[in-house]
């Protein structure tokens, strides 16, 4: 029963999702207030495995109006909270060419903690996009056919 704040719909269009993880995110107090009010933009954000952990870049959290001088840079790099074995696994998979770490959604879990669903993804080619469109159209045609077909 988590409250989804924002989703990255572009990620599902541009990438083939291979595996996803739930991870925490290190936020300042005013950023948490902004996230709770839904002032988050996940588009164009990505993550990188670095020596001191996994960092999330270009996640835009708009400044909280009532925080005044306590606001931080809206697009600063934020640390993602993962277990060490998860970081090692990500690092080994990222060593292969063509993989990217993209955030899929940001939400608050049942305990009230901000979480990010991070996915290991591979970029889609043009023919993959065409295949997805063809599948979507065929599914729609099938649903229309089943709807119009009444068994009596």
Describe the structure.
- This protein has 152 residues and is of the alpha+beta class.
- The protein has a single domain, classed as Small protein B (Small Protein B, Chain: A, Beta Barrel).
- 32% of the residues lie in helices and 36% in strands.
- Strand 4 (46-50) and strand 5 form a beta hairpin.
- It is globular and about 60 Å long.
Query: Which architecture name does CATH use?
Result: Beta Barrel
Decide which structural class fits the backbone: alpha+beta
In terms of quaternary structure, the protein is single chain
Instruction: Work out the helicity level.
Output: 25-40%
- What is the count of DSSP helices, taking H or I runs of 4+ residues? 4
**Main CATH class:** Mainly Beta
Largest sheet features? 7 strands, antiparallel
Strand content: 35-45%
Which whole number gives the mean pLDDT? Answer: 87
Query: What is the ordering of alpha helices and beta strands?
Result: EHEHEEEEEHEEH
Fold-level CATH name: Small Protein B, Chain: A
- How many beta-strand runs? 9
Looking at CATH, the homologous superfamily is Small protein B
Strand order of the biggest β-sheet: 1-8-9-2-7-5-4
| Terminus-to-terminus distance | 41 Å
Task: Summarize this structure as a short list of keywords or feature phrases.
single chain; 152 residues; alpha+beta; Small Protein B, Chain: A; seven-stranded antiparallel sheet; 9 strands; globular
